[in-house]
Amino acid sequence: MNKRQALIAAALATVCAATAGSASAAASASAAAEKEKCFGIAKAGQNDCAAANGAHSCAGQSKTDNGAGEWKYVAKGTCEKAGGKTSAPAK
After folding, report:
1. Which of 15, 24, 38, 49 could form a disulfide with 79 if both were Cys (CB 3.0 to 4.6 A apart)?
2. Which region among 21-25, 39-43, 50-54, 69-73 has the lowest average model confidence (pLDDT)?
3. Which residue in 6, 11, 88, 73 sits closest to 37, CA to CA?
4. How many degrees, rounded to 5, is the angle at CA 37 between CA 79 and CA 48?
5. In the chain, how long is the greatest CA-to-CA distance?
6. Do residues 40 and 68 share a domain?
7. Is residue 64 a part of any domain in this protein?
8. Of 5, 16, 7, 68, which is closest to residue 37 (Cα–Cα)?
């Protein structure tokens, strides 16, 4: 694949992602309402966003399993059953 083909493929992928994202925004909003943050259950590298203690600022950057400040989105009502907590640890 030459540079021109790669550029065209990247542009098409961006357009496809943008249209798919806007079409699913309403579905995402209702799905997010059915989920909650669950602290202490994320495996290393599988956290959903920034650590509560400020150790990092992005998804997938946790270094240890089940870190108290690491969280994942789970279905409402299932966090404590999985051994997690729905509130961030005290600083």
Report:
1. 38
2. 21-25
3. 73
4. 115
5. 53
6. yes
7. yes
8. 68
